[in-house]
UniProtKB/TrEMBL annotation:
It comes from Danionella cerebrum. The keyword Glycosyltransferase does not apply. InterPro entries: L6_membrane. Keywords: Membrane, Transmembrane, Transmembrane helix. This is Transmembrane 4 L6 family member 4. It holds the Pfam family L6_membrane.
Length: 198
């Protein structure tokens, strides 16, 4: 397979993943799907925008670059130094690294959020939401979930969305790593190694 075609496939895959991350981060601004009375009631890590900036916006740029790498017949440029395919593949390595950094940021924020747990109300007459789980014990001990009395299902909401961000970020890092390898091959061999061997 031509390295340009492979990069295009990666770009097509990264765009929906980036959209999923953006949507998850937006949904986290609405604890349990409801508008929060106060911004202080929203988990702090949501405001770091790991899904919107890290796995979202910073991933859109590499995806678009990967999609644009295959503009013409790969064999038409082999052996032609002026076509710039090798330089384009080298440039894709830089964008892939940028995407991996963004996804890595999202993964770190998701891990921290999962460890801290959600902000929630611990009593019915609580004025402000607090962090009842700061050490991650709630992940292995579901009986601790009773400490949160509201919003309803906040722990499931928190775990589901941050887990999606975590898994999607790891997949994005893997895809960007594939493109770094693919870009190195494309830089050395040109867009299509089979053609360059002729």
């Amino acid at each position: 397979m031509c390295s340009g075609n492979f990069a295009k496939c990666l770009g097509i895959t990264l765009i929906p993943l980036a959209i999923i991350c953006i949507l998850c981060n937006i949904l986290l601004f609405f604890p349990s799907g409801k508008v929060a009375d106060n911004s202080d009631d929203i988990t702090d890590e949501v405001f770091y925008l790991g899904g919107i900036l890290g796995s979202g916006v910073l991933m859109i740029f590499p995806a678009l670059v990967f999609l644009g790498l295959k503009n013409n017949d790969c064999c038409g440029c082999c052996g032609n130094e002026s076509c710039g395919k090798r330089f384009a593949m080298f440039g894709s390595i830089i964008f892939a690294a940028l995407g991996a950094v963004g996804a890595g940021y999202s993964v770190i924020m998701s891990c921290v959020a999962l460890n801290h747990g959600p902000k929630c109300f611990t009593t019915d007459n609580s004025v402000n939401a607090t962090y009842p789980f700061m050490d991650g014990d709630y992940l292995s001990n579901r009986t601790l979930w009773d400490q949160c009395v509201g919003p309803s299902n906040i722990i499931t909401w928190h775990l589901t969305l941050f887990s999606i961000l975590l898994i999607t970020g790891i997949v994005q890092i893997g895809l960007c790593a594939f493109q770094i390898i693919n870009g190195l091959i494309g830089t050395i061999c040109g867009d299509c190694c089979g053609c360059c061997a002729d």
